């Protein structure tokens, strides 16, 4: 086996300048300084001269690169590692990786790669780098830090062998939170220092009033990723949750726009290394999903057709709730911003204003195709200077509002007309080439320009390519990736193993636990007779979680039935729907089993047809367990995992004490339950009372507005639904407490 690139790196240290790292790329020595021969000229050209600004160097380089090389740089797609870390999704399609001589890269072409984002054939890794000149890929595997650094180094070595050297920008979804691994959202967890879910981080910040939790979280991410050579994150979600049925709630920081903005004021400079754009020691952030993905029509997600609309039914809701966190992204110069798939609905929205107090024209184009929002609002009025990275799949399966265009036209329209700089989804080089060719060939002599569009807006041009590639090259120059391309695998392992980072993450897990109800049962005492059971979306998941839970309870007397127990300890982990697919009805938030609910039609309106929903296998047993233990004076202690804002009544009503977590480690929850850590967490979002406050009428209109967060919904609820305190939306327990944002008990 050939020597890995990691073992062949040569380094040259400039006095008061950057380190130059290379495997085979020529290094120029001039005036006692070292320069990498990036453009292949063998001279200290503007491209090669690190003393110039990143923007100057990028502007010079786009004049050198060929059109095909530039087209390769406007697309990104998920990529694969070698045989040691085979992709389960590709394996399901029959792909068998073939290692390169280092054993790290996959040199087997992929015949067909199917995903929610589209279908494509993929070349070998060498051909992707050398022939297609793609320079942006998404990594979804979860290797060890050493293997990650080795893999990235090997990939970067390939880029060095091209006539024009452009390093590979390998990006990833977030890797530092616990949770269910979901393709396209959080693809990896548990290797880097692992915090609770982002909702849990928000719960801890609210409960402790310590924003330095975010500072430490961000600094850990920056050091770990940078040490491994992973320099760009598709993170984090600045979206404010306003409809609780949105599947992506679990990736947000909740429903408090002020807190979300404050979090991003700390998150961006902490991860990027400062407030003036990414630094060589930093990791680029892609803040998503402009102008806020939370305004879902009855929770439908725009990965599927029913969710293609953003609804702003409430006057001023866009500016009041959805835009604020993106101001922080601009203040601190986030390298890129990702627009959402969805398109605004003028028909179903109340007036919304821009920053000059003028009405915003709600054109029915997906936000990546929406010049009013991207060029007008984001760049023109808010002053965004970074680049636009589309969400994954806009050219093919999620082309909302521009489905009348063909694929080359969608590419041209996104880049040339609305200002997208990097299109995520598939490596659509051939379609990009076709879009560019149509600008000068006779295509539109024989094909009609689609109604409402102009030819010049539907084709890639030299000007639009140069603009887009200059922006992404500027990021790479800022990151120092052209000069110091290679990571040290040994250092990567050391940094990720930093004990203090893992201890801090563990503490935040405990701080994320929210105590909602307690009649004095908590804290539990060691030696208590405990019946312990965990429940999940499937019987198998519940059995596995129960086994793990019982193994954690070494400080109690475990019994096998509720009849023998002083305390029934119930760990409840509901799940609802599937991330990329619509359910037959609305996303179910009730913690239920075999519940009959209505279907919806293609437009999202309720029908008379019904289906059954189960969010928790065993939910119908909870009342029986509680009755059995209450019969002899025992107590029920429950915990609910809340990646969504559940309707908790079926659990709360049978529980004497109740906690919630947000992809929080069970061990951290037990620390709180047994008094080893006093509860401090506060709810980052409001838990709805029940189905009645989410009811949708025959016209598809929800009784509580989709575009207003839970804490503010009471102002819009019918007076007939309000109690003596003027509240209607939040769940109220037997003790009279409302489970609304900022609520949490202690002991």
Annotation keywords:
single chain; alpha/beta; 747 residues; globular; 28% helix; 15% strand
Summarize this entry quickly:
The protein is of the alpha/beta class. Helices cover 28% and strands 15% of the residues.
Head-to-tail CA distance between termini = 61 Å
Low-confidence stretches: none
Helix content: 25-40%
Number of helix segments? 21
Radius of gyration: 27 Å
Strand content: 5-15%
**Rough outline:** globular
Structural class: alpha/beta
Mean pLDDT: 95
Largest sheet: 8 strands, parallel
* Structure summary, number of beta strands: 24
> In order across it, which strands form the biggest sheet?
15-13-11-10-9-8-5-16
What do these coordinates show?
The chain has about 750 residues and is α/β, with parallel strands linked by helices. About 30% of the residues lie in helices and about 15% in strands. The mean pLDDT is about 95.
Give a topology summary.
Elements: E1 10-13, E2 19-22, E3 27-30, E4 33-36, H1 54-62, H2 67-72, E5 75-79, H3 88-92, E6 110-115, E7 118-122, H4 125-130, E8 136-139, H5 145-160, E9 169-173, H6 198-208, H7 212-228, E10 232-234, H8 257-272, E11 284-290, E12 309-310, H9 317-322, H10 324-331, E13 336-339, E14 343-344, H11 371-381, E15 387-388, H12 407-417, E16 423-424, H13 429-437, H14 443-446, H15 462-479, H16 489-496, H17 499-511, E17 514-518, E18 529-535, H18 539-552, E19 557-558, E20 567-572, E21 595-600, E22 606-613, H19 622-630, E23 635-641, H20 649-652, E24 657-661, H21 666-673
Parallel strand pairs: 5-8, 5-16, 8-9, 9-10, 10-11, 11-13, 12-14, 13-15, 18-19, 18-20, 20-23, 23-24
Antiparallel strand pairs: 1-2, 3-4, 6-7, 17-24, 21-22
Helix pairs in contact: 1-15, 5-16, 6-17, 7-8, 7-16, 7-17, 8-10, 12-13, 17-21
């Amino acid at each position: 086996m050939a020597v890995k690139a990691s073992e062949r790196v040569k380094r040259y240290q400039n006095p008061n300048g950057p380190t130059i790292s290379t495997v085979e790329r020529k290094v120029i020595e001039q005036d006692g300084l070292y320069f990498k021969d990036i453009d292949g000229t063998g001279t200290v050209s503007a491209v090669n001269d690190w003393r110039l600004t990143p923007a100057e160097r990028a502007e010079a380089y786009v004049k050198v690169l060929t059109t095909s090389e530039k087209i390769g740089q406007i697309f990104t797609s998920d990529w694969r590692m070698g045989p040691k870390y085979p992709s389960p999704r590709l394996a399901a399609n029959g792909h068998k990786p073939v290692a390169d001589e280092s054993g790290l890269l996959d040199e087997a072409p992929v015949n067909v790669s199917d995903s929610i984002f589209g279908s494509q054939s993929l070349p070998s890794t060498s051909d992707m780098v050398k022939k297609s000149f793609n320079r942006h890929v998404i990594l979804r595997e979860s290797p060890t830090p050493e293997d990650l650094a080795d893999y990235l180094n090997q990939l970067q070595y390939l880029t060095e062998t091209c006539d024009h050297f452009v390093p590979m920008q390998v990006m990833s979804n977030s890797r530092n939170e616990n949770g269910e691994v979901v393709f396209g959202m959080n693809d990896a967890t548990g290797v880097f220092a692992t915090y609770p879910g982002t909702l849990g981080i928000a719960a801890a910040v609210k409960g402790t009033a310590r924003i330095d939790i975010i500072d430490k979280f961000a600094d850990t991410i920056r050091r770990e990723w940078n040490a491994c050579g992973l320099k760009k994150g598709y993170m984090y979600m600045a979206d404010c949750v306003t409809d609780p049925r949105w599947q992506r709630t679990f990736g947000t920081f909740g429903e408090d726009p002020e807190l979300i903005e404050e979090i991003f004021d700390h998150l961006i400079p902490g991860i990027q290394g400062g407030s003036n754009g990414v630094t060589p020691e930093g990791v680029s952030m892609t803040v998503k999903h402009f102008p806020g993905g939370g305004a879902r029509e009855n929770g439908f997600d725009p990965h599927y057709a029913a969710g293609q609309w953003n609804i702003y039914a409430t006057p001023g809701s866009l500016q009041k709730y959805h835009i604020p966190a993106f101001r922080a992204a601009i203040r601190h110069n986030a390298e890129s911003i990702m627009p959402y798939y969805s398109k605004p609905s003028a028909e179903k929205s109340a007036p919304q204003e821009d920053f000059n107090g003028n009405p915003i024209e709600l054109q029915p184009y997906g936000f990546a195709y929406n010049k009013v929002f991207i060029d007008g609002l984001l760049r023109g009025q808010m002053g965004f200077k970074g680049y636009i990275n589309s969400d994954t799949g806009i050219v093919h399966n999620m082309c909302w509002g521009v489905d009348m265009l063909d694929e080359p036209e969608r590419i041209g329209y996104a880049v040339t007309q609305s200002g997208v700089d990097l299109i995520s989804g598939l490596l659509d080089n051939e379609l990009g080439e076709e879009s560019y060719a149509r600008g000068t060939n006779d295509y539109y002599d024989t094909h009609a320009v689609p109604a409402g569009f102009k030819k010049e807006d539907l084709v890639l041009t030299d000007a639009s390519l140069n603009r887009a590639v200059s922006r992404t090259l500027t990021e790479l120059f800022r990151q120092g990736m052209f000069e110091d391309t290679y990571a040290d695998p040994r250092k990567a392992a050391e940094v990720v193993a930093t004990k203090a980072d893992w201890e801090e993450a563990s503490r935040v897990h405990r701080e994320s636990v929210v105590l909602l109800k307690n009649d004095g049962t908590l804290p539990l005492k060691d030696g208590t007779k405990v019946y312990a059971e965990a429940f999940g979306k499937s019987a198998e998941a519940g059995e596995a979680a129960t086994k793990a839970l019982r193994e954690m309870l070494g400080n109690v007397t475990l019994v096998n039935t509720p009849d023998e127990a002083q305390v029934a300890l119930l760990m409840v982990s509901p799940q609802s729907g599937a991330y990329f697919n619509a359910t037959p009805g609305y996303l179910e938030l009730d913690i239920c089993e075999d519940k009959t609910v209505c279907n919806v039609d293609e437009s999202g309106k309720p029908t008379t047809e019904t289906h059954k929903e189960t969010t928790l296998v065993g939910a119908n047993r909870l009342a029986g367990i509680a009755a059995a233990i209450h019969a002899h004076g025992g107590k029920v202690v429950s915990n609910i995992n809340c990646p969504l804002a559940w309707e908790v009544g079926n659990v709360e009503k049978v529980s004497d004490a109740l906690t919630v977590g947000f992809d929080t480690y069970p061990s951290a929850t037990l620390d709180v339950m047994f008094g080893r850590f006093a509860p401090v967490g506060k709810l980052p979002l409001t838990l709805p009372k029940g189905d009645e406050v989410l009811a949708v009428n025959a016209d598809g209109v929800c009784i509580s507005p989709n575009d207003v967060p839970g804490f503010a919904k009471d102002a819009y609820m019918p007076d007939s639904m309000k109690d003596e305190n003027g509240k209607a939306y939040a769940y109220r327990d037997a003790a009279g407490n409302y489970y609304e944002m900022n609520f949490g008990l202690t002991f």
